[in-house]
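Lecture notes, part 5. Sequence design as translation. It can be helpful to think of inverse folding as translation between two languages: the language of shapes and the language of residues. The source text, in structure tokens, appears below.
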């Protein structure tokens, strides 16, 4: 992965990413994601989201 996203409006990328990360934080704060899993779970979440926006 080279850090690229497909062409398009910033909002079409930013809104879904922001919503997903806010959902991640909600799960973390509620305890659904335990402290020992936060780092790996966040890495996995970001990787899955960015692969979906690859060109």
């Amino acid at each position: 992965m080279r850090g690229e996203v497909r062409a398009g409006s910033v909002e079409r990328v930013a809104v879904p990413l922001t919503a997903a990360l806010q959902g991640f934080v909600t799960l973390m704060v509620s305890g659904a994601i335990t402290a020992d899993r936060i780092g790996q779970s966040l890495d996995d979440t970001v990787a899955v989201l960015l692969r979906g926006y690859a060109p």
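The translated text above is only one of many valid answers, since several sequences can fold into similar shapes. The first helix runs from residue 10 to 30.
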